[in-house]
Design brief:
Elements lengths: L3 H12 L1 H15 L1 H4 L4 H21 L3 H17 L3 H22 L3 H53 L3 H13 L5 E8 L6 E7 L4 H8 L1 E4 L5 E2 L5 E6 L2 H16 L2 E8 L2 E10 L8 H13 L1 H30 L10 H12 L4 E8 L2 E9 L7 E3 L4 H8 L3 E3 L2 H4 L12 E8 L2 E9 L7 H66 L3 H29 L2 H5 L1 H17 L2 E8 L6 H20 L5 E9 L2 E8 L16 H10 L3 E6 L5 E8 L10
Helix pairs in contact: 1-4, 2-4, 2-6, 4-5, 5-7, 6-7, 7-8, 7-11, 8-12, 9-10, 12-13, 12-16, 13-16, 16-17, 17-19, 19-20, 20-21
Length: 689
């Protein structure tokens, strides 16, 4: 641009800057009172002097570079104050008017004045072009940024209000926050109400499984570190596995360098959590606008985040309670059930309840821990671990839960698999007695305090299950022993007596033959034949009692009918069976106990009651099954009968094992009625009526 006259007046006005600044300030106050009237003349003169000096430098240099620098420094301020482009153009023209006034006084010759005005006009055409272009661009950029901000705020609000599942809410929010920066990543940490620490609950933007696993194992501590979030609150990084420990070393430096930032999430001064936002773009750093945008999003949805956090905690507690309830029901049922042995159930459910890959159950045997059951992988490399000289033996003696972050470095090589990464070791305690260890391995992200809490509760259930299993085994042994004693009594009372009589009768027949008493010998041999046949029938009856084939093939009614047929043939006792209701199969264990109760009652009728007839009624009623044995024998006084008399102890034990009702009605000379009621839903009955 031409600047001969501009350079002259520029040099003059630099020496008389106050004169030009005063005129410019007066014009600003007069024509733009909204922006300058409240500032006072002195403040306006200071602002005007800065702008005038920049223009005078342009006059002298002959280019717009000084003014461009000035524009960059003050344009953001004007935008922040809300000054529009019309006001900027008007202010620029007020400066032109001030320079015209100064030039009119400076140039006395008409020709010089006209040349000055021509150069000034050319200068301001360029100035207005520069001003409008740059200011419009900055204003448009701000509008676009505001549009993006509003869009993200709206998206965040929709995210947390449209999703019902709390985990989905937090995952979507992490995606929105990651979208505020190029190639962004985000992890949301929520406060653990029990420990006060922060654990990751949602993440977005981390591609590799290794990275995701490391972040899952990352934890934030509320104090003890110089690392600060954008609002100045300090945090420390710790980890629950080896991979995340590397992140715990890298992230603090990333936050300090500006490529990652921590954003504190609060609702009414209540700590909710922390958002860790970072970018994978090389050289990225957070600017003020991005920081403000993320803070605005978190402030907008803080209430929803807190609600999602509370719902997530409640959901987890409900899932834990349901899991423990289900596990307790499964573990405490009979080991004969369809779910297999109690040891397998413990190991299977242990790894399921905390999302581990493998589990191991070790029980104390002598001076060593015996690896009695494994589920999943990795397996135990050894079967026995001496208590006094192994890592697990030390853990057993300590009697406290241990969380292992890096098993390859913490567990001795010979005692672990090469695939073992993370581990939680929980003692099995029955009061002060140590039973063994329950271990779960290789959870993605590692194990934390929540896992410790629920595993200790699970271990308590497992101990009850082990105790129940031991009691069941002991009960089974007692049942077997009782059956052996009963069989011994039966053999003594029937088969043994028959064999003794056969021996005695055969001796008599031999002596009769030796003495020539042929007819007596024949009679004795006939008696011997009858005794042998009766003994054979008694033996067959005993074999049938041990395991009647009809019980499995035809059920309770078929087995009782077969037994009654045997009783009729063997003893001549009149026996009838009546069935009411729709016949149905009961659990085999229940059918077997009812059958043996019926056998014992029939034995009493044939051997003790001197009955001539017996009737068995089986009633398949709704919700229960009733078995009744009625005989017309001599009866007895229940009050004077010993507790275990006439086989009643065995009957009562069998009734208790199937949780049934037992009723015995008998009087001397009036026969006996024995009634057993077993309910379809176990737990409805119990004990004697």
């Amino acid at each position: 641009m031409k600047n001969e006259k501009l350079k002259e007046i520029g040099e003059y006005l630099l020496e008389n800057l106050d004169l030009a600044a005063t005129r410019f300030a007066e014009l600003m106050i007069e024509h733009q009172p909204r922006w300058y009237a409240g500032l006072g003349l002195d403040e306006c003169k200071r602002i005007a002097a800065y702008g005038v000096s920049m223009s005078l430098e342009c006059f002298i240099r002959g280019d717009l570079e000084p003014l461009g620098n000035y524009f960059n420094s003050c344009a953001e301020i004007k935008l922040d104050r809300g000054v529009g482009i019309r006001d900027v153009v008007e202010g620029t023209l007020l400066g032109k008017q001030a320079f015209i006034a100064a030039g009119t006084e400076f140039y006395t010759e008409q020709a010089d004045l006209l040349e000055f005005l021509a150069e000034l006009e050319d200068y301001y055409v360029q100035v207005l072009t520069l001003t409008t272009d740059r200011y419009s661009g900055m204003l448009l950029s701000r509008l676009n940024a505001e549009h993006v901000r509003n869009k993200l705020l709206l998206e965040a609000s929709r995210t947390v209000t449209s999703a019902l599942d709390p985990d989905e809410v937090l995952s979507r929010l992490a995606e929105v926050l990651a979208g505020t920066v190029g190639e962004g990543c985000c992890t949301i940490f929520l406060v653990n109400p029990d420990t006060g620490g922060l654990a990751p609950c949602a993440g977005f933007g981390y591609g590799s499984k290794e990275c995701q696993s490391a972040l899952q194992g990352l934890r934030l501590c509320p104090s003890g570190s110089t690392l600060s979030s954008v609002d100045g609150k300090s945090y420390g990084f710790c980890s629950s596995n080896k991979a995340s420990s590397t992140f715990a070393d890298i992230l603090p430096e990333a936050v300090r360098s500006g490529s990652a930032s921590l954003f504190h999430i609060t609702n009414s001064d209540r700590m909710v959590g922390v958002a860790l936002v970072s970018s994978e773009k090389p050289g990225f750093t957070f600017d003020a606008a991005t920081t403000e945008l993320i803070g605005g999003i978190l402030n907008t949805v803080a209430v929803a985040i807190e609600s999602a956090a509370a719902a997530r905690q409640t959901k987890r507690q409900l899932m834990e309670s349901e899991s423990l309830r289900r596990v307790a029901n499964v573990l405490l049922q009979s080991p004969e059930g369809k779910n297999g042995s109690v040891l397998s159930l413990i190991t299977d459910e242990a790894r399921t309840i905390v999302n581990g890959m493998g589990s191991v159950l070790m029980l104390l045997e002598g001076d060593s821990l015996h690896c009695v059951c494994c589920s999943g992988a990795p397996k135990c490399p050894m079967e026995f671990y001496p208590v006094d000289s192994t890592y697990y033996g030390s853990a057993f003696q300590a009697g406290e839960t241990i969380i292992v972050r890096d098993a390859q470095s913490e567990v001795p090589e010979g005692e672990r698999s090469e695939k073992l990464r993370t581990l939680i070791v929980v003692p099995l305690l029955e009061g002060d007695k140590k039973l063994g260890l329950l271990m779960v391995s290789n959870k993605s992200g590692g194990f934390d305090r929540d896992d410790k809490r629920i595993m200790e509760m699970f271990a308590a259930q497992a101990v009850l299950a082990l105790r129940n299993s031991r009691m069941f085994e002991q009960s089974e042994k007692l049942v077997v022993q009782g059956e052996r004693q009963r069989l011994a009594r039966e053999l003594h009372d029937s088969v043994t007596q028959a064999l003794y009589a056969i021996t005695f009768c055969s001796d008599a027949a031999v002596r009769s033959l030796e003495s020539g008493k042929r007819d007596a010998a024949i009679e004795q041999l006939k008696a011997l034949q009858g005794m042998a046949q009766q003994g054979m029938r008694d033996m067959r009856s005993l074999i049938f009692d041990l395991h009647p084939p009809e019980l499995e093939s035809e059920g309770l009614v078929g087995a009782i009918q077969a037994r009654l047929n045997s009783v009729e043939i063997r003893s001549g006792l009149g026996a009838d069976l009546f069935v009411e209701g729709d016949e149905r199969r009961l659990p085999l264990r229940v059918e077997e106990e009812l059958f043996r109760i019926a056998i014992e009652a029939l034995n009493n009728s044939t051997k003790h009651s001197k009955a001539e007839s017996v009737t068995v009624n089986v009633d398949f009623a709704e919700g229960k099954t009733v078995v009744q044995i009625i005989d017309d024998g001599q009866g007895f006084d229940i009050a004077t009968l010993p507790t275990g008399g006439m086989g009643l102890r065995g009957i009562r034990e069998r009734v208790e094992r199937i949780n049934a009702h037992l009723d015995i009605d008998s009087e001397p000379g009036k026969g006996t009625v024995l009634t057993v009621k077993v309910f379809d839903v176990e737990g409805t009955g119990g004990g004697d009526e």
